[in-house]
Amino acid sequence: MEDDNIQIGNPAASYDDDSIVHLEDMEHIRLRPGMYIGKLGDGSSHDDGIYVLIKEVIDNAIDEFTSGFGKRIDMTINFSERKVSIRDYGRGIPLLKMVEAVSKLNTGAKYDSKVFQKSVGLNGVGTKAVNALSSWFKVQSFRDGKTRCAEFCEGELTSDSDIIDYRPDSELEATGTLVEFVPDSKLFGNYHFISEYVERRVWNYCYLNRGLTFYYNGNRYYSKNGLLDLLEHNMEGEPLYPVIHIKDEDFEAAFTHVNGQNSDYYYSFVNGQHTTEGGTHQSAFREGYARVVKEFYNKKEFAPEDIRQGLVCALCVRIQEPVFEAQTKTKLGSTHLAPNNKDGSNDSPYLKTYVHDILKRHLDNYLHMHSDTADILLEKIQRNERERKSIAGIKKLAKESSKKASLNNSKLRDCHVHYNSNHERRLESTIFITEGLSASGSITKSRDVETQAVFSLRGKPLNTVKSNKADIYQNEELNLLHNALDIDEGMENLRYNNVVIATDADVDGMHIRLLLLTFFLKFYPELVRQGHVYILQTPLFRVRNKQKTKYCYSDEERIEAINSISNPEITRFKGLGEISPDEFKGFINQDMRLDPVILHKDFDTQGVLTFYMDKNTSERRAFIMRNLRVEDDESIMV
Fold first, then answer.
1. Structural domain spans, the chain
2. What is the enclosing helix (H) or strand (E) of 177?
3. Average of pLDDT values for 346-355?
4. 394-538+573-636: which CATH topology?
5. Is the Cβ–Cβ distance between 25 and 104 less than 8 Å?
């Protein structure tokens, strides 16, 4: 018998001719920005959209450089106006097609592999996305004694000078392209640029393009030795042996071992693009390196993880028409050095075979010629093997207990979307590490269950400054934490893009932050180095009357709010548990304030941990006394 009350779908939604909608290029980018630049963000994260916009413009300038045109790039960022200006000295965009080149999708010269053999941007999208997602965008091209300048608003053309005569002030300025833009705050919110993120990208461009001079806000960046410089400038600790530097046509790698690192770590690139998530070229190197070393020592029983543990490597390959797994190009999917032929055949070598053959020739020769390095490497591998076997039993028991606990883990309230998946929202995946049940309760009730997980600490975690890996496996709380992150075997399986420490804004909360940072920096520094760790900023004050409410994150904001609200009621939040779930929802949404934990390239991790987190010393007591601040609760009364 049929039930007339059963309905499937939305009966009010009709599917007819009016349902078919056509969006122009710029409209589509603005409606679906995630398809083009990944996530939007506010600039707190190194992979937020505003940095992708910068990268897209610079990539075009780099493609000019690698094609042999223009050895210099100038970039300025006006932080107060949030305006980015990038000038290259290449050939300049052809003037007749300049407007189309920055405003029409699937328009560009990079479809012609004769013009750009090994370019990063092959989809005709980059500057179009920058244009569409900017409240103001300007492009000006200089070539053949002529210039053309056009301006846009939200991707719509607002002015065009047409082609006019141009007299350069110097020979350098005779050709090239100038792009200026302001990311649209209607899309990116109250965003801000973090100079360290930009500077890191600038350095990478210089490491990968020897001979390129890059000026950023008046400072000169230049690398003489390429990936060798990158590794030496960013390495944690002293190398166990001199850096091995291999260059062979379209392949370059620099690598060595360091002590105290949990796994192997890579700075990997394809055609100058930083592939932060690796891909087929990185997998080929990992596998090929372990195989060559094993064959050199004639030790079939060596485990690949023992060979690679402590390895740090900077790696770059250049291939034709690379296939990336997303528009943001953070993971390589190509398996061959060049694309398929028109007849469907593929005579191009496998990337895996290509990398392995290079390593077989160069690394095997190097180890035969440098017996001192070969002896040090052998000792390191054997030491890794002994350490692995010594804690194998403890690790097995810890994994079994964590699996049992995970079945009914009251500490973890997981989300549905994870970073190590292919979900379109994977970059939003976040885990909040909180103190106590009240704080985690507020976040749990107000979170987005699709992308936000909560891990609750029961109090202050173990101070791990003097701990070893066995201590971590035997500590139930930290064992559950690193299993929740799934980073024990390396970063490839990381489950959350954003690891957010969410503690109270008091002395105990600050102590817990430091204990967690000590744990991450000592055992999983790559988690911090790759920009996944943040501190959640929650409001210190609520200033309100019946008509208006303002949340304040500092004394300055509190005073400003008091001056703008008549007869205000002022609340000082002393713990996250005091903030209701309804209020908390506004503090962990897309506009949440996150302070990234950034490691500067000259940061002395071991020295800092020893000074601040090891046993008390007279030097540390003197430092505390010099920097002691006493806050008077009376100062917040009105």
1. 25-221, 227-339+348-390, 394-538+573-636
2. strand 176-183
3. 83
4. Rossmann fold (3.40.50)
5. yes
Q: Could you report the per-residue pLDDT of 13-63, keeping only the tens digit for each?
A: 555 545 544 456 778 888 888 888 888 888 988 889 999 999 999 989 998
Do the Cβ atoms of 269 and 281 come closer than 8 Å? Answer: no
Asked: is 25-221 a CATH 3.90.580.10 domain? The reply is no
Residue corresponding to tokens 């801000």: 192
State the pairing for strand pair 134-143/176-183. antiparallel
Q: Read off the pLDDT of residues 136-173 as tens digits, 9 standing for 90 and up.
A: 999 999 999 999 999 999 999 999 998 999 888 888 88
CB 36 within 8 A of CB 106: no
Give me the CATH topology for the region 227-339+348-390: Ribosomal Protein S5; domain 2 (3.30.230)
* Tens digits of residue pLDDT in 467-485: 888 888 888 888 888 888 9
The residue written with tokens 């992708």 in the block is 52
The tally of CA atoms less than 13 A away on the side-chain side of residue 427 is 21
Tokens representing 583 are 């209020």
Strands 134-143 and 146-153: antiparallel
Copy the structure tokens of residue 21: 């909608």
Q: What percent of the chain has pLDDT over 70?
A: 87
Q: What pLDDT does 634 receive?
A: 40
Residue 28 identity (one-letter amino acid): H
The answer to whether 551 touches 542, Cβ cutoff 8 Å, is yes
pTM for this entry: 0.81
Task: Find the distance separating the first CA and the last CA of the chain, reported in whole Å.
Answer: 71
Please report which residue ranges of 76-160 form alpha helices under DSSP H. 98-103, 126-132
Predicted local confidence at residue 228, as pLDDT: 94
CB 462 within 8 A of CB 474: no
CA atoms within 13 A on the CB side of 460: 12
